[in-house]
Structure prediction request, 192 residues.
Amino acid sequence: MAGHETSPEFFQSVWDAWNAKPPREQADDVLVADQSLLDALDVLSPEARESFRFSMGPMTFDYDGFVSPRLNEHVLHLWDVEVALDPSATLAPDTVPFVVDNLELIVRFTGKSKTAEHLVQVRTSEPQRDFALAIGGEGVALGPSAAGAAPDLELPAEALIRLVYGRMDPLHTPPTHGTADLDDLRRTFPGA
Prediction:
């Protein structure tokens, strides 16, 4: 927001400072840091949002492109905490439509191509979306499904999100339908 590029060393310095904190301090400080970020984003004028650019490695994000991955991280980390206390926890329902519609970039980074090239047609519920998951070759990609394509996998949208982020192990898998191999998909998206 200051109009200058962020040095590559900055990101590692942030993680180093974070990792050096004891857990209680991390839990307290994340609330302060999140509120600070929200406050800074909230005061941006429409013109500032329109001209907003954030570079990270080879990618440059506009305002929405910057905010979307941050929302995704929040939603997933909240689930990480909630599922530790309640094994039946799911992602916050009011966030799922925003996150599922912004999975394309995440899939390119989290997906690991370990099988022959193939296409998995995915249909989600709550909300309903139809995706084509291309696995193999140069990597993994997510795009819209071809009109009329029969789904190979049907599952709740929140479960697809958790799958892509490596958080849909057998103990946290809702009922699914279709012929897609869930174990193969779990290997495709091993998580961090």
Q: What stands out?
A: The radius of gyration is 18 Å. Residues 8-85 form one domain. The mean pLDDT is 91. The CA atoms of residues 87 and 172 lie 7 Å apart.
